[in-house]
Amino acid sequence: MRVDKALQKTSGVQALLALLFIVLVSLSVLSKPIQPSVEFKAPALPDLAVQKTMQSLALPSETKMVHASYIEQLPNNRQLLYWFGGSREGHKDVQIYRAVVQNGEIVEPVSAVLSAPMLSELSGRYIKKLGNPVAKHHNGKLYVWVVSVSVGGWATAKVDMLISEDEGKTFVYGEKLNTSPFFNISNLVRNPPVATSQGFILPAYFELNRLDPLFIHLDTNMRMQHAQTLPMNAIQPILIPNIKDNTAKIFARPIEQKNIQGGLWNPDGSRWEVSGIESLPNDSADSAVVQIGEDKLLMVHNGGNGRGQLYLSISEDGGEHWQIAKTLEDQPGERFAYPSMIIGSDGMIHISYTYKRQHIQYIRATIPALLAEAQ
């Protein structure tokens, strides 16, 4: 009997060591530097509109809760919006919703386009709930990445890629993003992919044990090639490339820090710096950033006292220092969160965000109108 117990104990220790070895190998694979031939590509930005124009629109919702909107540019000066909605976040009835706006007006009404049962059928595996959608219109197709959970909470999430040929109304299955040869859990997305010489980099992040950015490298057909993590202790990273020296500014949601986290990264792994941005207090909330000039950036973000305030800030020096240009929302105790922002083909800034979890608020404005309070 004592021999059996000793053998059981030894077997248990061996199993634990084997598990530890697998985890370490998995993390080391994820942390491998990528090929240095990857270079960022300059985005094709339209001429910015110069008149003072600003429109605001509440996108209607039939669900009790909405969250995590995302904007993507479509042809013919149309903007696609996705978000998830249901009885509450993480419930099995949550679906991905879609709407299309043009010139500040809804031209394709709000409709549910993806549910957990639908993704289960497409992927061939059980899906319990859905989360953040991210989209990219590329070569006439719309590629959509969505966070999915089969068991547990967001810490066990995976990312599925879907492909649409009708601008996001219906889908065929692309692939599950396998970022590790062993454990493909705790992978989430939130912010837009960035073009490179080899395809795109899709910013992602972990929420289990380690809370770090995860950069997923895609080919020109949006198929995953490899992934790389960065030690940052922050999530929901945003990449803003600098073409001149092939580096990228990183802005990420802090975990325990008091400020939005910033970093400077070279995709060949030769350069990595991280520090908090003192001029951007933040109470662990997501942000959105776009580049409007060589060194000019716009950011939509919360402040340091919850999500009751939502600000638009500008940086004139590539993201080192920031000044609040406009207060978009100011209701302490409420929740205005998870902004998305793009420069549209009309030269206007398009912003969406969660409004009290009741509806998605959409803003279409020119730079002069947005910065009017800062003059």
Automatic annotation (TrEMBL):
<keyword id="KW-0326">Glycosidase</keyword>
<dbReference type="InterPro" id="IPR036278">
    <property type="entry name" value="Sialidase_sf"/>
</dbReference>
<feature type="domain" description="Sialidase">
    <location>
        <begin position="80"/>
        <end position="351"/>
    </location>
</feature>
<dbReference type="InterPro" id="IPR011040">
    <property type="entry name" value="Sialidase"/>
</dbReference>
<protein>
    <submittedName>
        <fullName>Exo-alpha-sialidase</fullName>
        <ecNumber>3.2.1.18</ecNumber>
    </submittedName>
</protein>
<dbReference type="Pfam" id="PF13088">
    <property type="entry name" value="BNR_2"/>
</dbReference>
<dbReference type="GO" id="GO:0004308">
    <property type="term" value="F:exo-alpha-sialidase activity"/>
</dbReference>
<keyword id="KW-0378">Hydrolase</keyword>
